[in-house]
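Ticket opened by: R.M.
Priority: normal
Category: complex prediction / small molecule

The reporter submitted a protein together with adenosine-5'-triphosphate and asked that the result be attached to this ticket for the collaborator who will pick it up next week. Submitted input follows.
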Amino acid sequence: MDKKIFRQRQLANLKVFATTAQKEHEDEQLLERILGWEELINAETVGLTWSLEFEVNTWPLIQQLWLMEKEVYLPTANQDKSMDFKLFSDRSDLGFSRFGVGEVMSAKTRINNQLDLIIVPGLAYSSKNDRLGFGGGFYDRFLARHLGIKTVTLANSQMFYQNTEWAVERTDIPVQTIITPEDFYYL
Ligand SMILES: Nc1nc2c(c(=O)[nH]1)N(C=O)[C@@H](CNc1ccc(C(=O)N[C@@H](CCC(=O)O)C(=O)O)cc1)CN2
Ligand SMILES: Nc1ncnc2c1ncn2[C@@H]1O[C@H](COP(=O)(O)OP(=O)(O)OP(=O)(O)O)[C@@H](O)[C@H]1O
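Result attached by the on-call engineer:
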């Protein structure tokens, strides 16, 4: 299916799912699974996003990472479609961009784009490790420029597809590991 049409359908699905108790339950399962995952345990610097309602809730994960004394970085989306990961160490440093996503506002914060692990956001994933994002191309551009960075994603039951049901572009970069409530999919 055309990527744009699939993305709109998927966004509508996820917004409905976000109102259910099942979504919250799966968020908890996914949190538990990634916290027990060796590659997360071994990472010292972790990049992830401040989640929107229909995405997997990252706030409990961020708090756990702080307790584990990991450095947590959130991306800032730039005008030229590049991203910079900024150190996030205090909830009060958070602001909201015009797109409505949380970003670190503090100007004196550290940038680190060579992270040990990036937890990539997205709307849909397949067992072939294909990923469909929001459509900005921010992560595909970032990952193309930072080859060798480890990537993982948390996919709830509504985000995960056995087959890739949308058209994959040449610039789409697959995610190395997908964690679902039941399984791990490695590229
Ligand atoms: N929670 C979360 N944070 C995230 C992402 C995400 O998917 N989820 N991103 C994943 O990539 C990045 C931001 N993604 C974006 C995706 C699209 C547009 C966008 O369409 N911008 C339009 C204008 C929007 C407006 O003006 O309202 C544009 O720039 O033309 C912006 C940011 C970084 N932070
Ligand atoms: N490395 C790249 N260089 C140039 N253009 C790119 C690159 N990666 C993606 N694009 C372009 O950006 C646009 C959006 O890409 P795409 O639909 O894959 O976004 P997405 O992966 O869903 O979003 P995101 O990565 O922000 O979560 C497309 O037109 C795509 O061709």
